């Protein structure tokens, strides 16, 4: 191990040796430290990472954890985890050795996040990520126990109440949308319940107007100006959705005005931003309550429930992995059937 000065650049560099997880001896060299102390600190943290000692800082553990999960997650999910660690967790706890992080430290961090006014779902995501990161240390780097377990959780996984429009509210809104592209996109969202990423990933060969079917087999994300296609959210999200005649007509009318397209081209070659401003402008103009683009999915589910569609069919149409997800999300929208049940029982009783 050595920390040396580079007289040409007037900076320090580290040259050290370590044994990797395969048992192989390797050398590591790192340049550009302005102070010798910085070089020594980096060397210590690096060796602790390689040795997996539980007194490494949370910063070091987070790098190891991110490296481990990168090949196991979709890129967009990995980026979300990294963002939360870098911006919501490490600025508060990153410099502490993981074996010195106490439940009181976790509790103080939680209270700080709660005070920022974040949603329950966002708070839950933050907390779950910290739990997972420290569980990684318990499992692989000899941390005795996870302090998060004693600190308790924060936030809730589910929103307290979903927001949606009734069909009357939607009709009032869509009547004001006069741009054919935005109109067709909103119509597709409302009458299929697909996710916005699934809508933007649609290619012409996914739409079968002759048989009234839209095939969902991918989703799309945007990063650094690039369009990134990935598999849908869950295996059950790969599905075929039957569409009503009015949506067949709308899509046909829209596609007729597109020239020179290839079957593998995106039907709606835009980002989510195209709908955000239009939704805000037209909903305010119509005097409607504020909803998100994702809430068109909830509005579709509400429409189907109001029509009396079986929950299993709704679950399959939305691409939920389990019907319980559908029931848990929309249970409060189902009307009480107690009176109907009693009436049917009365009919079979011989008086």
TrEMBL record:
Keyword Repeat assigned: no
A single GO BP: DNA recombination
Entry GO MF terms: DNA binding
Gene3D superfamilies from the UniProt entry: 1.10.150.130, Intergrase catalytic core (1.10.443.10)
Segments forming domain Tyr recombinase: 160-346
PROSITE patterns: CB, TYR_RECOMBINASE
Entries under CDD domains matching the protein: INT_ICEBs1_C_like
UniProt domain Core-binding (CB): residue ranges: 56-138
Job of this protein: Site-specific tyrosine recombinase, which acts by catalyzing the cutting and rejoining of the recombining DNA molecules.
PANTHER family (alphabetical): PHAGE INTEGRASE-RELATED, PROPHAGE INTEGRASE INTD-RELATED
Protein name: Site-specific integrase
Species of origin: Eubacterium ventriosum
């Amino acid at each position: 191990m050595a920390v040396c000065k580079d007289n040409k650049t007037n900076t320090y560099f580290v040259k050290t040796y370590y044994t990797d997880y395969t048992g192989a001896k390797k050398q590591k060299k790192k340049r550009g430290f302005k102070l010798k102390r910085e070089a020594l600190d980096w060397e210590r943290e690096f060796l602790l990472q390689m040795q997996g000692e539980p007194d490494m800082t949370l910063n070091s553990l987070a790098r190891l954890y991110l490296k481990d999960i990168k090949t196991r997650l979709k890129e967009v999910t990995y980026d979300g985890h990294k963002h939360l660690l870098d911006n919501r967790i490490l600025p508060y706890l990153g410099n502490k050795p993981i074996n010195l992080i106490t439940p009181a430290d976790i509790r103080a961090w939680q209270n700080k996040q709660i005070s920022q006014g974040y949603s329950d779902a966002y708070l839950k995501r933050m907390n779950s990520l910290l739990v997972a990161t420290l569980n990684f240390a318990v499992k692989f780097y000899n941390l005795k126990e996870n302090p998060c377990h004693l600190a308790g959780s924060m936030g809730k996984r589910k929103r307290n109440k979903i927001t949606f429009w009734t069909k009357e509210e939607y009709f009032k809104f869509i009547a004001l949308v006069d741009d054919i592209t935005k109109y067709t996109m909103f119509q597709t969202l409302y009458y299929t319940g697909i996710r916005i990423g699934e809508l933007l990933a649609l290619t012409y060969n996914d739409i079968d107007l002759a048989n009234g079917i839209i095939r969902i087999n991918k989703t799309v994300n945007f990063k650094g100006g690039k369009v990134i296609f990935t598999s849908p959210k869950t295996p059950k999200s790969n599905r075929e959705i039957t569409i009503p005649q009015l949506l067949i007509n709308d899509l046909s009318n829209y596609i007729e005005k597109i020239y020179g397209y290839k079957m593998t081209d995106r039907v709606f070659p835009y980002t989510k931003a195209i709908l955000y401003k239009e939704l805000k402008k037209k909903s305010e103009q119509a005097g409607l309550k504020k909803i998100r683009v994702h809430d068109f999915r909830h509005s579709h589910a509400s429409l189907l429930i109001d029509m009396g569609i079986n929950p299993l069919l709704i679950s399959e149409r939305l691409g939920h992995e389990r019907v319980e997800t559908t029931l848990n999300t929309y249970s409060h929208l189902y009307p009480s059937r107690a009176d109907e049940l009693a009436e049917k029982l009365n009919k079979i009783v011989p008086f």
